[in-house]
Amino acid sequence: MTASIASSLLILSLGLVPTINAADHLDAPGVANNGAADITDLYAFSTPNGNSTVFILNVNPGAGVLAQSGTTFGTGVKYKIRVDTNGDNKPNVTYMFRFGAPNNMGVQSLKLYRNDTLVSNGWTDQDNAVSGGGKTTAGLYDDPFFFDLAAFQGAVLGSGNGRTFCDGDTTDFFKGLNVSSIILRVPNSQIGGNNHNISVWATTTVQRKGTWSQADQMGRPAINTVFNNVDTHKTDRDDFNRVQPADQPRIFGQHVQDVLTALGAADPAGLAGVLLPDVLTYKTSNTSGFLNGRRLKDDVIDAELNLVTNGGVTTDCVDNDSMLSNSWPYLAAANN
């Protein structure tokens, strides 16, 4: 693989520009000014005993630091974790979270609906039981995403900062940043049972002119920022965020194929069929991690670097910096 093709693939794969665009942070104009509706990452992984699944949905990139991102959830936002249990890329189970206005301590009321039925009624910053089994909480946590953005800017984008991957000055751009996280653990019996293949994605919905409208959508990391990265297609990012997974291959499939063809992919149509629809594929009870769902510790950047360069670049030499746990609430505490 030539250096130019490798660099092009890296840019395409990671979808990064010299801001904090990454997995899905600030991915589209429609959410760039509303951090509370901007999904940064989605995780789905098995508990160690294999009987339950954990979903984590993060919003508010750079919470409390970036102007558009506060440290609380939107009162006018519906946060949905959507689960397809029969393979048609349409949700069979939807977990929807709504939040009330924060009090003077920043605590918000929390309501969780499963397929429009209220199953939890509690508060952020505390554990709340879920009817039928499970637990949920929400609040400010350390951003678990990790990546050497400065090295990418220097080695791939040609910023002139003198950085390259693994040059001894590796820096995790996201170290010290926070996100607003929704954490939900449910028994597998609610999502098809143990050892069952499902697909998972997340959406945020906001009110526009009195009508609820989907603002953001995410399954796998970086898909929207990847294939709508060049100027002629950046406006497609909002469109992509509003299209349901079942319709994505029909609407965006040819564009994805065209991009892959331009980069010399061996099987553009086949690869496009893998990349779309944008959902996390996950087998319950399976603890193997990305591409089986996504665990918090999974180095998705290393996996993608290795994939798109055919082993030419295998790592950015940045490891996870978060004090993650294998038990509830899994995420590290927020940075001060």
Number of helices: 8
Which sheet architecture does the biggest sheet show? 7 strands, antiparallel
- The residue ranges in which pLDDT falls below 50 over 5 or more consecutive positions are 1-20
Specify the helix fraction band.
10-25%
Radius of gyration over alpha carbons? 19 Å
Distance between the termini: 44 Å
How many strand elements?
12
Could you report the average pLDDT, rounded to the nearest whole number? 86
SSE ordering: HHEEEEEEEEHEEEHHHHEH
> In total, how many domains does the architecture comprise?
1
Question: Roughly what fraction of the amino acids lie in strands?
Answer: 25-35%
Key descriptive features of the protein:
336 residues; alpha+beta; 5-stranded antiparallel sheet; globular
Account of the 3D structure:
The chain has 8 helices and 12 strands. Strand 5 and strand 6 form a beta hairpin. The protein has one domain. It is α+β, with helices and mostly antiparallel strands and 336 residues long. The strands form 2 sheets. Strands 3, 4, 5, 6, 10, 11 and 12 form a 7-stranded antiparallel β-sheet that branches. The chain has a 5-stranded antiparallel β-sheet with strand order 1-2-9-8-7, with no helix packed on it.
Task: Describe the protein's topology.
Blueprint: H1 3-14, H2 29-32, E1 39-46, E2 52-59, E3 77-84, E4 93-99, E5 109-114, E6 117-123, E7 128-129, E8 135-142, H3 149-155, E9 178-187, E10 197-208, E11 211-218, H4 223-227, H5 236-242, H6 248-262, H7 268-275, E12 280-283, H8 300-308
Antiparallel strand pairs: 1-2, 2-9, 3-4, 3-10, 4-5, 5-6, 7-8, 8-9, 10-11, 10-12
Helix pairs in contact: 1-8, 6-7
